[in-house]
Write a structure and sequence with these properties.
Layout: H1 2-40, E1 63-70, E2 73-75, E3 89-91, E4 94-108, E5 111-115, E6 120-121, E7 123-129, E8 135-148, E9 151-155, E10 158-163, E11 173-174, E12 182-190, E13 198-213, E14 218-225, E15 233-245, E16 252-256, E17 259-264, E18 272-276, E19 284-292, E20 295-308, E21 315-320, H2 322-330, E22 333-341, E23 347-353, E24 356-362, E25 366-370, E26 379-387, E27 391-402
Antiparallel strand pairs: 1-27, 2-27, 3-20, 4-13, 4-20, 5-6, 5-13, 7-12, 8-11, 8-13, 9-10, 9-12, 14-19, 15-18, 15-20, 16-17, 16-19, 21-26, 22-25, 22-27, 23-24, 23-26
Length: 403
């Protein structure tokens, strides 16, 4: 009996478990089909969104990109901006002249020379010649209203004349070839008379000459070059103009600190330029000198003009894509220049952006500048830093900040 009931229960329960499992499987299959149907529908009305041609707009996020990066190190300031240096050194005007004019170099009071067989009276005249080369056409002239015999004239041991005058006025005697530097000795004596004395009464005696005055034939003027300036000179020139007086045709000699630059007849009223080695100059006081052997010259507008050594500064290039350029022009981006320095001393200079300038100054160890968008261009751009004084730049970056 018991076995009967157990078998009956088992027979009745089996269909119930089988039906429940089949129903669950069916529900899962139907659910999967519904999900696929929703995903594959062209117009998902269940969600309330139209997914056709939809665009996802991201939230605004700033994006930075480095366009150029460098470590410049020491940037040398252009020396032409150095307060110690000058575009030129002016020199005062100079007047040099050599004047030749007629002068009486000796006059003598009237005297008498005489001689006979028993005695003679001679006359000695002394005169000084400082520089024979400056004396030309030296003439002795005199009158003798009373005379008898032969008059002998001697200069420095040389017989320069033996005269037997037939008139009161003696013809001038040229002494030029018998002169000597310093003391000159001129003597007069007469031939001896036999029964009576011979004699010459001399009056209006004078020695004349054309004397060249060279006391102002040369002149020097000074100019000063500051310490440490010479090392910045690449080359140097002397410029000047010469004004000529009286049809001057003498040579004009020009020198710097004793170094001869030129010796020639000047081209009057026209500017002259002479290049010479920097080595002929020295720090401190220097001298420019002018001299002439003949003529009368005024030298003016004298300038010593150095050419300062050029300083080559590096350029930093960066590129802007057309897309970034459009962002800049629309205000959706900016380009920033950043520099860092090794100290907090005062720093000053100029930033060149594609040739356009913008000054900067700071005491900070960092400096930032937004570059003017109107100065920038698509593709190639260039930045150059020109300091007013030597500047140590640890790093330099150019970056673009997009909004």
């Amino acid at each position: 009996m018991n076995n009967f009931f157990k078998n009956k229960r088992a027979s009745n329960d089996a269909p119930l478990y089988t039906n429940a499992g089949s129903a669950g499987t069916l529900i899962i299959i139907i659910g999967v089909f519904i999900v696929f149907y929703i995903l594959l529908m062209p117009n998902n009305n269940l969600t309330g969104f139209n997914t056709t041609n939809s665009t996802v707009t991201p939230s605004p996020v700033s994006s930075d990109s480095v366009l150029a990066e460098a470590h410049p190190g020491l940037l040398l300031a252009p020396k032409s901006n150095d307060f110690r240096l000058s575009n030129s050194y002016s020199v005062d005007d100079v007047l040099v002249k050599v004047v030749t004019q007629a002068q009486v170099i000796k006059k003598e009071n009237p005297f008498i020379v005489s001689a006979n067989i028993f005695s003679s009276h001679e006359k000695t005249i002394l005169f000084n010649i400082p520089d024979v080369s400056k004396y030309k056409n030296v003439l002795l002239s005199f009158n003798s209203d009373k005379h008898k015999g032969i008059l002998f004239i001697n200069l420095n041991g040389y017989d320069v004349a033996s005269l037997d005058l037939s008139s009161e006025n003696a013809k001038p005697i040229d002494l030029t070839d018998y002169l000597q530097n310093g003391k000159n000795v001129l003597t007069f004596k007469v031939s001896k008379g036999f029964l009576s004395s011979n004699y010459y009464s001399i009056s209006d005696l004078k020695i004349t000459a054309y004397v060249t005055d060279t006391s102002r034939a040369s002149a020097s003027k000074s100019f000063t070059i500051p310490p440490d300036a010479l090392e910045n000179f690449d080359s140097v020139s002397l410029k000047y103009v010469v004004k000529c007086f009286g049809g001057s045709d003498g040579k004009l000699t020009v020198s710097i600190n004793g170094f001869n630059l030129s010796s020639s007849v000047p081209d009057c009223d026209n500017p002259r330029k002479i290049d010479f080695p920097v080595s002929q100059l020295s720090s401190g006081i220097n001298y420019v000198s002018f001299s002439t052997d003949a003529g009368d010259y005024l030298i003016y507008d004298i300038q010593v003009v150095p050419k300062i050594k050029s300083v080559t500064l590096p350029s930093y290039f960066f590129k802007l894509t057309p897309q970034d350029y459009d962002l800049l022009r629309s205000g959706a981006a900016k380009v920033v220049l950043n520099m860092t320095f090794g100290d907090n001393k005062y720093k000053e200079g100029v930033v060149y952006v594609n040739g356009y300038t913008n000054g900067f100054s700071t005491y900070s160890t960092h400096y930032s500048m937004i570059l003017d968008a109107s100065l920038l261009r698509p593709y190639d751009n260039v930045v150059k830093i020109v300091p007013k004084r030597d500047l140590e730049v640890d790093s330099l970056t150019v970056s673009i900040k997009r909004y």
